[in-house]
Design brief:
The structure is a single chain. The chain contains 11 helices and 12 strands. α3 crosses α4 and α8 runs parallel beside α9. Bound molecules: S-adenosylmethionine. The site of S-adenosylmethionine has 23 residues, from α2.
Amino acid sequence: MMTMNYTVNSTKAYHVNQLNSLGWELTVCNALYPENTLLRKLLRNNNSYGRLLYHYLSNLLPMEKIKRVVEIGGGYGYLMKGFLDSNKALEPCMLDISPYLIEKQKETLKDYHISYKVEDFLETDPGFLGGFDLAIMNENLGDFPTLINLSRKMLELPPKSHDPYLRQALYFFERYKLDWPPGEAFNLNSGALEAVEKLCASGVSYIFLGEHSCEATVPESLRPFIQIQSAGSPERISLMGHDEYSIKFSYLQQVARALDYRCIRGPFADFIPFDLTEELRFIMASHGQHKDEDEMICQFIEDLYKYEYLVLIKEIH
Ligand SMILES: C[S@@+](CC[C@H](N)C(=O)[O-])C[C@H]1O[C@@H](n2cnc3c(N)ncnc32)[C@H](O)[C@@H]1O
């Protein structure tokens, strides 16, 4: 009989020792940062990602009352710059595993008073999170450890394994009543679940999470133009020097709800609205085959649906 084993995808060594550019991973936030990018011209509101997100959150959360913000994995610091340009009263802390990116954040945010912490969020003392009003994790949950090729049998066969990864995975399924994925083998975003559990357990009032989803959908009316495929289970995304995995958002929602958070979920297109003009329809329908810049536009528009967000709001009883 062939015995299968699982593996752990970790990006820690890459982020701590190797990373010296995010250029290879053009996040939606970075793509919208240059003022003259043609991508901004597609938008109803020509603005940076940070400003667009801040504006959107203002309709959902009392942003004028929020002071202390922690951003985990802030990359080049562009999202936070948009937040601070929108509201100078914010008191942010940037926490990042990458010493290189923390230096980049210091350059981007040099005009503001910010505190910095170089640390793996999974090792952060939970007490550190007390007192923050808002926590942000944008396009980084897929970097957290993912267990690959798990099976229900591996987790349930007695005697229960002493392997800490398997114990933790079984804990998530039992504690949060996660549905078992169909099929024999599956991948589990265990690090993302741990990070969200940690944020919610800290009681921070508001949380924003955004990442590449494995459960993304496109509204019916846009399907002739925007075609994306969602596996339903975390999928590998190969990048320079490391792999990351798309995120099963329904599991994150189950964790947040169990820890007393209300969830608002949607695609990035909710806060990055665009008009489907005749020209854009043509570019999307021809899959951007005519010009290099059309290909970039297609990818960007698809990303506005492949990426989902969760806004978590602590329930007050
Ligand atoms: C793909 S970048 C996203 C950057 C930025 N949020 C954006 O949207 O452009 C991932 C970020 O998460 C950070 N990161 C990855 N794993 C982390 C961890 N375990 N703890 C803290 N930061 C982490 C990386 O160093 C990087 O800043």
